[in-house]
């Protein structure tokens, strides 16, 4: 990742929470600890943040605490072709008229390109997903209520009396920060709280993750493998990871990039 992009992510992170640790920045940028420490030192000298023991804080502390994790705009550029292929397979599971839930995320967002010709009720907590479907499809779109988190482009509510409880879905589609033997993992307690409510409203949970997510971990578990009906991923999945899903009774779909996507990568 280029230095300018790392600096943008670091500065965004310190505006989202009071103090960001070096390890959190390493995870966000997928850079080395030494690189992050140099970045913090440079930004401190430029008076763009304040260096503290083990991390950094904003010069002007944030008034509103955001979510842990990379911004939507950064995530959508990572493994983009794999995400699009995964999303195509996800939409193949949908039948016209079937109500579905699409949780906000950069992989689930790619589903909108394949839903343009469909007609179904869709509940989402994502502004980009809702906006695209309203402009480019005839689907019925329902948005959740709550607080808008600009960096992740999602709407979350910790309260039980929101509109979520009034929507039934045949399937819920979602991504995750990580996927392992203990189940789906996320990086923020508020995400866990809001997503658990959504999961309760669906018969089946379909997880859309590129294969790198099998090697990532978080301290927060959203749900066990037993709750997941299907996992859609790319052909980078390893045999032991596929075996893990098979043992848990989870259906695995491996998405292949289209010929057009393959040729664009080689160009």
UniProtKB/TrEMBL annotation:
Alphabetical list of Pfam families matching this protein: DeoRC (PF00455), HTH_DeoR (PF08220)
Residue ranges of every copy of the HTH deoR-type domain listed in the record: 3-58
PROSITE patterns xref list: HTH_DEOR_1, HTH_DEOR_2
SUPFAM superfamilies: NagB/RpiA/CoA transferase-like (SSF100950), Winged helix' DNA-binding domain (SSF46785)
This protein's UniProt keywords: DNA-binding, Transcription, Transcription regulation
Protein name, entry field: DeoR/GlpR transcriptional regulator
Source organism: Mesorhizobium erdmanii
Gene Ontology MF terms in the entry: DNA binding; DNA-binding transcription factor activity
């Amino acid at each position: 990742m280029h230095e300018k992009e790392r600096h943008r992510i670091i500065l965004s992170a310190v505006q989202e929470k009071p103090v960001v640790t070096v390890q959190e920045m390493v995870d966000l940028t997928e850079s080395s600890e030494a690189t992050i420490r140099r970045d913090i030192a440079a930004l401190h000298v430029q008076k763009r943040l304040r260096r503290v023991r083990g991390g950094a804080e904003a010069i002007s502390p944030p008034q509103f605490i955001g979510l842990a994790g990379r911004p939507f705009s950064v995530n959508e550029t990572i493994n983009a072709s794999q995400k699009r292929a995964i999303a195509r397979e996800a939409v193949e599971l949908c039948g016209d008229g079937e109500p579905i839930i699409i949780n906000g995320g950069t992989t689930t967002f790619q589903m909108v390109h394949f839903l343009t010709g469909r007609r179904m009720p869709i509940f989402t907590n994502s502004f980009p997903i809702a906006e695209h479907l309203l402009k480019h499809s005839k689907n019925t779109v329902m948005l959740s209520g709550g607080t808008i988190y600009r960096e992740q482009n999602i709407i979350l509510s910790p309260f039980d009396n929101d509109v979520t409880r009034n929507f039934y879905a045949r399937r819920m589609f979602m991504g995750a920060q990580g996927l392992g033997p203990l189940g789906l993992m996320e990086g923020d307690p508020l995400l866990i709280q809001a997503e658990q409510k959504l999961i309760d409203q669906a018969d089946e949970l379909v997880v859309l993750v590129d294969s790198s997510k099998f090697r990532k971990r978080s301290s927060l578990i959203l749900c066990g493998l037993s709750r997941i009906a299907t996992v859609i991923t790319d052909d980078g999945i390893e045999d032991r990871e596929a075996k893990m899903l098979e043992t848990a009774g989870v259906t695995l779909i491996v998405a292949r990039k289209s010929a057009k996507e393959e040729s664009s990568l080689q160009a």
